[in-house]
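Researcher: Let's continue the batch. This sequence belongs to Epoxyqueuosine reductase, and it's 348 residues. Same format as the previous ones, please.
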Amino acid sequence: METTMSVLATQLRAWAQDLGFGALTIADVQLGDAESGLQQWLDAEYHGEMDYMARHGMKRARPAELVPGTLRVVSVRMNYWPDAAPAERVLCDDGLAYISRYALGRDYHKVLRARLQRLADRLVAAAPSSYRVFVDSAPVLEVELGTRGGLGWRGKHTLLIDRTAGSYFFLGEIYTDLPLPVGDRVGAHCGRCEACIDACPTGAIVAPFRLDARRCISYLTIEHPGSIPMEFRSLIGNRIYGCDDCQLVCPWNRFAVVTDEPDFKVRHGLDAPGLVALFAWSAEDFRERTAGSPIHRIGHERWLRNVAVALGNSSGGAEVVAALKARAHDDSPLVREHVAWALGRLIE
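Model: Same format as before. Here are the structure tokens for Epoxyqueuosine reductase:
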């Protein structure tokens, strides 16, 4: 059996490569020593309004509770960094909108899940078994599992890093009841570097390996449903969907390569769009131009909220002020509030 599982693991890695994954590793499900850190993070309320994080509790660290019978977790990664306008150039131009580079193409949930399903189909055909496929869709400690299997190490920004691929990649998992051989951890290579901590605009990385989501621009522009706290609005700059700053400064991302996955190519010129043009989008425009994109799930109201904040952080000018005034009486109280804030900054 051991020899058979070893051969199967080798086959899995080859199949994963054929399906476009950058790497595949296997971990066991004994994550008990990760529970205290998870509980401390929840107790500190660093999850903000992501209630599902607390609701699932320790199930996130107990794969066999999530999927009974699970013995191993197969983790994969897929590069997403697109051939796009240079991130630094967009961030330095306050008339443009910055969108996190992972969100410029097709929704990664759909892409990875389809590929993982094909990988799982091959696995089951070779060795009949039970499994579940997950792509950021269940209480899974994906970075912890990836770390234990040798997919990379946890960086001080809490993301997974690989020496040959940096950190610009998505993760996905297959929970299986097959006793596959587990991989070996790799050493951590952050050393004394704290570039990611220093670069965070809002100080969300409160300590090495500790992220307060309530301060994170990705959380504020994507997960947070209501009014963006005043203390963070000016710090958000022109970032209207997510933030890449902690990764942009990571020395290991000099080894990251541009993805060759067609689904992750830039859509609708969203790698360097003008803020005023985006603020003019109707609800129908938003639906049409973000269909099939991860951006779609925040909805038109949050989109306008985020763009209003970015406009308030811009150099202003007649065009910007006119665009904001055009939505000063928007049907949404949330949008009106952020428009008023932006106008207050631009008109003295």
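Researcher: Any comment?
Model: Residues 108-126 form the longest helix (19 residues).
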